[in-house]
Design a protein that fits this description.
By secondary structure, this protein is α/β, with parallel strands linked by helices. The protein is 45% helix and 15% strand. The chain contains eight helices and seven strands, in the order βαβαβαβαβααβααβ. α3 packs parallel to α4 and α4 runs parallel beside α6. Bound molecules: NADP nicotinamide-adenine-dinucleotide phosphate. The site of NADP nicotinamide-adenine-dinucleotide phosphate has 28 residues, from α1 and β2.
Length: 252
């Protein structure tokens, strides 16, 4: 593998789930900036995904948009297979796709629970299972799961989301142990309050309350998350596995 210092991920192939918007988009751009070829997964935002592919290609990296609902076992397997078929392999998987269906448990419908667990927790399993098969043979891999501080400290109105994010943390730690001998690392990044579309339905008072709890005194941006993910995806992070890195302005 090339040791080009400007492009430490030169020659690597990365799948970023939910890369059409928000944190996933920033991660895709950061990995591409560091030389990786990017599979931009999306569920519904085809236009945004294609625009991101054009942006990555304009920067000199290869990219491909692939529609897949990560909650579907078959879609997730097709996503990973397409990456391997089109780019000749897979080195990095970022399980970033995620949704919320916030409400207090008294009002939470079974469908709210199921949808969030299916996308956030099962989606992470689906994509990782498909990727690990290939990475084991290759004896190389980097898996980074985007969890949340809600999975560490909990959040009222988010029992489903917090459970799904805690599931990702347990999954990260268990899988890290399973695949370490094959030179595959598995880590999680836990963002705090990061300004993206995911906050669209959260009332202003709730946002203000949260903001007041952040020692660094500001919301984060997707660009606060992406460099840490790129580091965990790099060769420099070879001896880090099973960890959860909170990026939350000091909130937790
Ligand atoms: N923003 C925060 O404050 C924050 C804090 C902690 C953790 N996180 C986590 O960070 C990740 C990204 O969040 P974000 O804030 O960037 O959210 P966002 O702006 O709402 O973007 C969500 C992304 O996930 C994709 N997605 C949703 N369901 C999917 C599915 N079933 N299959 C494939 N892709 C799917 C969306 O694709 P389409 O547009 O194509 O539907 C979109 O690209 C999530 O896992 C979230 O839980 C966010």
């Amino acid at each position: 593998m090339s040791q080009n210092q400007d492009k430490p991920l030169d020659g690597r192939v990365a799948v970023v789930t939910g890369a059409s918007r928000g944190i996933g988009k920033a991660i895709a751009l950061e990995l591409a900036k560091r030389g990786a070829q990017i599979v931009v997964n999306y569920n519904r935002s085809a236009e945004a995904a294609e625009a991101l592919v054009a942006e990555v290609e304009a920067g000199g990296s290869k990219a491909l948009a692939v529609q897949a609902d990560v909650a579907s076992f078959d879609d997730a397997h097709n996503l990973i297979k397409t990456a391997i078929d089109q780019f000749g392999g897979l080195d990095i998987l970022v399980n970033n796709a995620g949704i919320t269906r916030d409400t207090l448990i008294m009002m939470m419908k079974e469908a709210d629970w199921d949808a969030v667990l299916a996308t956030n927790a099962k989606g992470t399993f689906n994509c990782s299972k498909a990727a690990v098969r290939h990475m084991m043979r290759k004896r190389y891999g980097r898996i980074i799961n985007i969890t949340s501080i809600a999975g560490i400290i909990g959040n009222a109105g988010q029992t489903n989301y917090s459970a799904s994010k805690a599931a990702q943390i347990g999954f990260t730690k268990a899988l890290a142990r399973e695949v370490a001998a094959r030179n595959i690392t598995v880590n999680a990044v836990a963002p705090g309050f990061i300004e993206t579309d995911i906050w669209a339905d959260v009332p202003e008072e709730a946002r203000e309350g949260l903001l007041n709890m952040i020692p660094l005194g500001r919301k984060g941006s997707p660009e606060d998350i992406a460099p840490a993910v790129a580091f965990l995806a790099s060769d420099e992070a070879a001896y880090i596995t099973g960890q959860v890195l909170a990026i939350d302005g000091g909130l937790t």
